[in-house]
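User: Here's a chain of 132 residues. Predict its fold as tokens.
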Amino acid sequence: MKKLLLLSLTALLGACSSMTSTPQASLDGEVFYLQRIALPPTATLEVSLQDVSLADAPAVTLAKQSGPVKGQVPLPFHLTYDPAQIKPGHTYAISARIEENGQLLFINTERNSVDLTAKTQQPIRVRVDQIR
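Assistant: Prediction complete.
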């Protein structure tokens, strides 16, 4: 009897946890630059997925990854976002920046649009340019 009760409770808890979890989608890619220089060991990378639909309003960030740079370019990233936030007809883009001690070293200067409605996502390559 106790085993049956324990089994029933386990099944119920499993069903509840699967109902409350939010569906997630993700984008993978890498950030790179063309200059033949090494990044300082204290550099940080920030990559964001943004809704850039409105030209007269700030972009809305849907996902962000930031932290210390591990290694040299290309620098991999993985963004996880909630697909329920994706709105039909909106435009989405990836932005990236590399900083050291709060000072900007590299930033993307071109729009890196992504189609979040595609069935499969190809890895995204984001080029950043050095700030002089």
